[in-house]
């Protein structure tokens, strides 16, 4: 039960929503599905005087264009799983949605934009969106700006979104060449948050390209993008290079009640190798 009194707003337009966030900047937050915000408010981890609901803004669409897929911030995991556009063009996103802990109750309530906005290091979405080179559209009374995933996630529960901005859409570019994808995560038990999450996109051709993003083990996703000409993705040298670069970028890591940073760092190299080998096996199959 939420113990603090707050005022709930249901704007009918983006203009109205932006106006509320500008009017109550620093005192207002946005709620999507509520799977993370409501428990946090109930536990008094966060307190807000104003909560802005987005259910009337029709931000739950998945639209295919010539260059990208645009996903509304209120699109639920269930809607991602039901979308033929996601199935055909964004299989990595579908893999992630299938593995969100909680089953249908969370899939129907939780939203992609909510996960990105809350920026819990242990969430499934951040690493996946970084691997897909997503861009986040942030709307305010001043207009809309686009922020690349690498610049959007700044740290644990901290993003580039300003207090008066609203995340409206996530844009993911279409692959320009054949790619294979893999998303895997490691959890202490079936119902827990992950302690390591690894997402990769492997682009075939000459040179071969690997883009890998690691989440849950660090306050913000660690992204590594490398090209491998010539011998490409044969042997172990390319794996060693990606593991070394990822570990160098992981810093001190992330600790919570499930696992401390040192344990996550110990798990991470094997998790990266397993993820990338699974992707390559799909190429060779």
From TrEMBL:
GO terms for molecular function: FAD binding; oxidoreductase activity. PROSITE patterns: FAD_PCMH. Residues 1-177 form the FAD-binding PCMH-type domain. InterPro entries: CO_DH_flav_C, CO_DH_flav_C_dom_sf, Diverse_Substr_Oxidored, FAD-bd_PCMH, FAD-bd_PCMH-like_sf, FAD-bd_PCMH_sub1, FAD-bd_PCMH_sub2, Mopterin_DH_FAD-bd. Pfam families: FAD_binding_5. The keyword Lipoprotein does not apply. The keyword Oxidoreductase applies. Keywords: FAD, Flavoprotein, Oxidoreductase. This is Molybdopterin dehydrogenase. The lineage of its organism: Bacteria, Pseudomonadati, Pseudomonadota, Betaproteobacteria, Burkholderiales.
